Batch of 2 targets.
Target 1
Amino acid sequence: MAAKDFFTPLGSIIASLMFFWAMFQQYFPYELRSHVEKYSKRLVTLIYPYIQITFHEFTGERFMRSEAYSAIENYLSSKSSTQAKRLKADIVRNSNQSLVLSMDDHEEVSDEFEGIKLWWSLGKNITKSQVSFYPATDEKRYYKLTFHKRYREKVLDSYLASVLKEGKAIKVRNRMRKLYTNNGSMWSHVVFEHPATFQTLAMEPEKKQEIIEDLITFSKAEDFYARIGRAWKRGYLLYGPPGTGKSTMIAAMANLLGYDLYDLELTAVRDNTELRKLLIETSSKSIIVIEDIDCSLDLTGQRTNKKKEKVEDGDENKDPRQKLVKEEREPKNSQVTLSGLLNFIDGLWSACGGERLIVFTTNHIEKLDPALIRKGRMDKHIELSYCSFVAFKALAKNYLHIESHELFERIDELFGEIKMTPADVAEHLMPKTVPGDVEVSLRSLIQGLELAKEEAKVKAEKEAQEQEQEQEVKSEIKMQQNSVKENGDVK
Ligand SMILES: Nc1ncnc2c1ncn2[C@@H]1O[C@H](COP(=O)(O)OP(=O)(O)OP(=O)(O)O)[C@@H](O)[C@H]1O
């Protein structure tokens, strides 16, 4: 059949329908008209038993991008990439700069929820813009959801809620994560792009696995925390000598969970009120870190100022302008107290919705007040220690891409005799030539370990000598005292 033969009768049918509709509107009595409309609607529902819901991209007068729309967009991204024939691609500005695909205009994808079939389509309205002098068009997109009317309640009650939740979760996973630092009572942020992961972290595999499982269990335990009536938070205390990987582990935690990091500098916080303000402003899915807690807060209630200690005799004090900036940053009358911090951990913190981890680090766990680190506040205590042979092997795999080497035996022996931090081991394993030579790096480590062993031996000998001398001096003093006493007795 030729196109002309098809369209000619169709055109006249449409024209007749429009004619009857106009006549109906003009001459049909109003009371009867509402009845006819009601029955015609019922007829349409019978023939077309589907419900459609539209989600517009922009809502309200201020043309804010609708949250529901962007959640649906994220939710549909994985379905679109497998089902849609025409796709749009965009780079998401997350830490991986990954490519995200979504369906193109007028495409349709299907979905299934508890046995219900649903269809999503992306539509577009084009309007002429009135604002510009130049001819311009405005495109407004919308998602349309279609499903059978018999599932109305299930879709409205459960399906849409799950779509929005999943869509928001995808958005959080794809977002660019941030590292916040406080300057006084204000947070400022930069993009968080630390490459550390648990794979690159050198520590005993069982211990590493335990921490990973603990973190993942926590991140999925929203319902559990709600059921037992506890705030969804968990405290970690990382302790160990400098250079054993405390900061590296925090970065690995943030990367594992996809959380933001808040690096809270307590010495720059004026008082408990400021502390409270800062903490209320933290978002969910975040890790709040207080490094070197023993230096940041005097556990008797008086604060010390670690930065001040470090630069006491430095150049910073000589420049009056820098001194002023420093004083502004570290006000002298700071009064953050241990009890203020504990209140935050126990009380106020609980009022903020969403999951949060709080991590304290210290080089001296023995200096910390037991109240601060009891379970419930710091739930998990993790010791990061000197490099073991197992941890070294993880570093060697990472840095040198080797799992065994003839020099490993000697290194294992030396690790049994001398302590070295993973930071120092890592430094020896850094490439010394271009391209990196494995043997040169391993020999550098052996040399470093032997040197450290020698130094430790000299130090031990010196200490023993000093102790001996001290002992000699003590016994000499005692002898003198005894002879003075004896002389006195004789007189
Ligand atoms: N366990 C580890 N695994 C892998 N790399 C490590 C480890 N420990 C330390 N490093 C390396 O050493 C460097 C210093 O480590 P890091 O800053 O994490 O130590 P730290 O314990 O936080 O030290 P500090 O107490 O002085 O802050 C890191 O950049 C990292 O490359």
Note: The chain has three domains: 26-174, 178-383, 389-464.
Target 2
Amino acid sequence: MTLLFVKDLQKSFGGVVAARSVTFSVERGEMLAIIGPNGAGKSTVFNMVGGQLRPDHGEVRLDGQEITHAAPQKRFRRGVGRTFQVAQTFASMNAAENVQMALISCHRRSLGLWAPARERYREKAVELLAQVGMAEAADIPCSALAYGDVKRVELAIALAGEPKLLLMDEPTAGMAPRERADLMDLTATIAASRRIGVLFTEHDMDVVFGHADRVLVLLRGQIIAAGTPDEIRRDAQVRRAYLGDEHALERPKGPGPA
Ligand SMILES: Nc1ncnc2c1ncn2[C@@H]1O[C@H](COP(=O)(O)OP(=O)(O)OP(=O)(O)O)[C@@H](O)[C@H]1O
């Protein structure tokens, strides 16, 4: 069964139609990018899937179950995880404690109260950090980590909730080019091995064309194209939408200097 199915989503703000008849799906293990010029409606669609915005019309289904009007917390329990544009870790806590907090909040009902918080889920947290290449940073405060490493810790935090679908809002914003490629390679490997569907918005075309399995292009709230990175790069309507930025759709040249 399709993991995420979005049908006919519609959202207006006053007179502005931010999303119009938006229909798409995400399969398990698939990386789907939503792109489009500024104001195209990417955040609007993304937030309707995450539950931060209520659609005027249409439906959102996860694993066949309707979640169109479910609050973000309920979606989270159903398997929708999310990372944000700006990393959301607690700077004063170390990497392991940040992941432990996420694990404690995910498993809160099955916990006894006698174990000190510092020990709860420590092993599982370090295991998750190892999966994102950060096991050695377990005891380092997040405030002392490089930004790219904080984003990896954030990925481990998102994985603590065992998501079926991971929403990533501009996952590589603020990162150096090599760090971007590394984070997205890691995300793709984890998505494939755990069969997690990943829906992400992204302005960096190297990231999109280098890491998405499929790309959706929005323009003025409507999907104008959907396909593989190569199909999208060749699409005349998409090229016109990006007119004025003629390099935006060029083939990535591989990782540049960090
Ligand atoms: N809360 C809001 N109130 C009024 N208008 C809004 C609101 N949110 C979005 N819009 C409008 O809806 C349209 C789509 O906005 P949206 O933020 O979804 O685009 P976007 O593709 O994410 O843009 P960007 O790349 O600049 O982040 C824009 O015209 C925007 O001004």
Note: The chain has nine helices and ten strands.
